[in-house]
Every structure is written in C-alpha cells, then in structure tokens.
Amino acid sequence: MQKVFFISDHHFGHKHIIDFETRPFANVEEMDMYMIKSWNSVVGKEDKVFHLGDFSFLNHEKTQAIVKQLNGYKHIILGNHDRGRTRSWWLDVGFDEVSEHPIIYKDFFFLTHEPMYMNKHMPFVNVHGHIHGQKYEGKNYFNVCVEHWDYKPLTFEQIRDSVVASEEQ
User: Fold this and answer.
1) What is the average pLDDT value for the chain, to the nearest integer?
2) pLDDT-derived band at 112, boundaries 50, 70, 90
3) Known Gene3D superfamilies for this protein (predicted)?
4) How crowded is residue 47: how many other Cβ atoms within 10 Å of its Cβ?
5) What angle do CA 93, 150, 31 make, to 5 degrees?
6) Cβ atoms within 10 A of the Cβ of 64, count?
7) Contact (Cβ atoms closer than 8 angstroms) between residue 62 and residue 55
8) SS3 108
9) For residues 167 and 153, what is the distance between their CA atoms, to the nearest angstrom?
C-alpha cells in the first residue's frame, strides 16, 4: 500500500547550513549521503513524498543525481531557495510534480514552505518547513524540517496522529 510522506529543507550541497543549523556532519558530502540514506530508509519506490521546499543548492547535474537516488514519487512545493529556478528545471532534474503555491491536502492540511498565518480558532493545520530548528507553538502548525526528524520524511499518519494528540492535551 502506498504511503504519503512529508519533509522539507534538505539544502543538499549547502555547506553553510551545517553551521547555521548545527547539523552533526563533518562536511557537505557526509550530510548529503546521510540524508539520501535516511530518506530511502523509510520511503519505498511506490510511495509519494511532498517536499516542502529548499531542496538543493547544487547545479542541475548534481541535483538530478540526488533526485534519481531518492525513492518514491516526488512532489516539490518550491521554497524560497528553489524559486530562482523554473518549474521545468525542477521537472527535468526528476521531480514528478512542481507546485509554486501552497496545496490543501485532505481538506484540512495546508502544505507550504514558509509557515502561514493561522489564528488559534482555525480548524486547519499548516504543515510547513522554512524555520528549521524552531517551532511555532500551538496545534495549528507542524514543522517538517529535516532537523526535527533525523532527516527522515514523516508519514501522513505520523503527522495526523501527532496533531490529534496535541488537540487532546
């Protein structure tokens, strides 16, 4: 059975992110290899992954080589560091779908790169990236940046169950 996953902010090839976010890697090559391995440890060939932006700082050829190694059907929602490249560039490196705007998933989850304004009375959840190690308070936000999840994509069920648990508290 196909699973659906969510993740953001890999920053493949971005050596400065190691220091910016205190990532536990000696260099960018070690980081990139670990992130590919982590992705494939949970995502199967038939699964779907929503990547919520800031995927790669590498050139076309190197980004394409990474995308080819990653399991699953890959849908990217462009992040602030991705938007300098065209939709066709992202499709050509191997993404199956490219979104330039947020997506509403299962009529309840807003998938975005940057967190969006959500007042506490809204019944929706914003699944987002962009803020890396930080977290917004409240049941309306779910941060899927790699730093929070050992660089592994999360299943829809993990997110849904976490949201339900936070509402029960």
Assistant:
1) 92
2) very high
3) 3.60.21.10
4) 18
5) 55
6) 17
7) no
8) coil
9) 23
Count: domains in the chain: 1
Burial class (CB in 10 A: 0-12, 13-18, 19+), 81: middle
d(CA 117, CA 41): 33
The conformational region for residue 54 under phi > 0 = left, psi -120 to 50 = alpha, else beta, is left
Q: List the domain range (segments joined by +) for residue 47.
A: 4-168
Give CA–CA dist 140/121, Å, rounded. 9
Residue 74 β-bridge partners: 49
Q: What residues are paired with 49 via a beta bridge?
A: 5, 74
pTM: 0.93
165 within 8 A of 139, measured Cβ to Cβ: no
How far is residue 35 from each of residues 93, 111, 157, measured CA to CA in Å? 18, 21, 21
56-78 pLDDT, tens per residue?
999 999 999 999 999 999 999 99
CB 47 within 8 A of CB 80: no
Residue 79 maps to which CATH number?
Answer: 3.60.21.10
3-state secondary structure of 142: strand
Q: How far apart are CA 7 and CA 71, in angstroms?
A: 13
